[in-house]
User: Which sequence fits this backbone?
């Protein structure tokens, strides 16, 4: 099967160098056409294209990981962007993982274009990419380029800014019971939602680090 060239759907201002230059589903896995559709959606995602252009990311091949071949991995970046491999499928091959889960792994692997180890430099940039994706979608939905804090204090870190962007963008599915009380003020409820979102993002990112096959090259 020949690799599929990615067709640009971004703005005319986007630099064609900063993109996924081809996509390659694995033809030996079930339903490769659906895998190709998911990879194409990721490659043409306006928010992903926005951060790739902003940070000058170029990826040679966007492809998938076979669960049975590398069951412990969710993502892998080969040679700082030569290829990015993503786990698209469920363990039983009876479907695909949710789009937002896979896209978050993609942001993680894009960060490895710059930083190999999961150090503080990596964490800061990765958090920034996720924040920018969330802010881009929020601005696009609102039809505006202004991204206010809506009652939150100025963020002290990229992670806090990312969490604010998720909360303000409506991504409030936190898991578990709410910690808010009926006596809480609106400001206290907002802060508890923000704290819960930050905790969830930290847990998600730790899982991604544990299940990422990318590391800095040997010196």
Assistant:
């Amino acid at each position: 099967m020949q690799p599929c060239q990615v067709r640009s759907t971004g703005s005319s201002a986007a630099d064609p160098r900063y993109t996924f230059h081809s996509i390659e589903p694995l033809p030996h896995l079930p339903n490769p056409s659906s895998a190709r559709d998911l990879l194409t959606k990721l490659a043409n995602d306006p928010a992903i294209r926005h951060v790739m252009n902003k940070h000058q990311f170029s990826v040679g091949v966007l492809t998938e990981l076979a669960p049975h071949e590398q069951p412990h991995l969710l993502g892998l970046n080969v040679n700082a962007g030569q290829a990015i491999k993503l786990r698209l499928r469920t363990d039983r091959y009876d479907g695909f993982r949710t789009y937002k889960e896979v896209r978050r792994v993609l942001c993680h692997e894009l960060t490895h274009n710059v930083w190999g180890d999961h150090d503080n430099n990596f964490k800061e940039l990765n958090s920034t990419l996720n924040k920018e994706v969330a802010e881009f979608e929020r601005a696009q939905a609102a039809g505006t380029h202004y991204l206010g804090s809506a009652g939150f204090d100025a963020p002290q870190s990229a992670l806090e800014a990312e969490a604010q962007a998720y909360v303000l963008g409506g991504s409030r599915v936190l898991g578990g019971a709410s910690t808010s009380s009926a006596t809480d003020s609106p400001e206290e409820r907002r802060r508890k939602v923000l704290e819960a979102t930050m905790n969830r993002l930290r847990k998600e990112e730790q899982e991604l680090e544990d299940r990422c096959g990318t590391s800095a090259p040997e010196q």
